Amino acid sequence: MVSKKVLIVYAHQSSGSFNSAAKDAAVEVLTAKGCAVEVSDLYAMTFKATATAEDITGKVKNADHFCYGEESKLAWEAGKLTVDITEEQRKLTEADLVIFQFPMYWFTVPAIMKGWMDRVLTLGFAFTHEKRYSQGIFQDKKAMLSFTTGSQESMFSANGINGDMNVTLWPLQNGILHYCGFQVLAPQIFWAPSHVPSEARGTMLEGWRTRMQGLLGENPLAFTPLDCFDGEKGYQLKPEVHEKHAAKEFGLTVGIHLGKALPPNNQMKAGV
Fold it and tell me: What is the reaction catalyzed (predicted)?
């Protein structure tokens, strides 16, 4: 049996952090299960967060009106992306599972991790107009977010001051991971570890260790397939799909909600 390959994209400045402990636990458990685990420690790598013309070796097609998406696609095709990008693309190509481990900053990933996404997930390599969402390039791979929050769980509820965490996760899980075709596993959320006793933090890590025993076999979150939308009509939901769900209580997903109540835990639990 060929061992599974796991890439952990990790973003925290301190080796003494809870995020570091979560990352180390993942490396330990998954390695013990026979996986080949590779870690991209973005801060330790001083990974460049900005998407600029310096990411391309040699001349660009249009220096006067530089378009990163188009220029990086051409550079990827010609083998002219810088080595820091191509090395991450190699890791991603080889991986069966990608885990993004980070502290939530301003309701999203830290800038250095967003820079990894901007620079590594280039047009052509990670997606094309034809190959995206359920028909995406990485549809045979799984990906997930594992992160800490500064706020307690109740603040990220439908009645909480921060709003529903399912809504917060939609741009990351649908707009980046699912867009590139990944099967998106339910997120691992460590709620406000800096505000709980050490025993509670230990319990959180044990829960993560337990989950990892069956992580690679988990079913992904549900997203509406690309063929449910009409590409000739602005990728609107096809009438027959809309009609099929007209009498249902909830919308299809957090984003495609049809003006209905959001399906509970749509971005946090599989099979709902």
Answer: 1-(beta-D-ribofuranosyl)-1,4-dihydronicotinamide + a quinone + H(+) = beta-nicotinamide D-riboside + a quinol
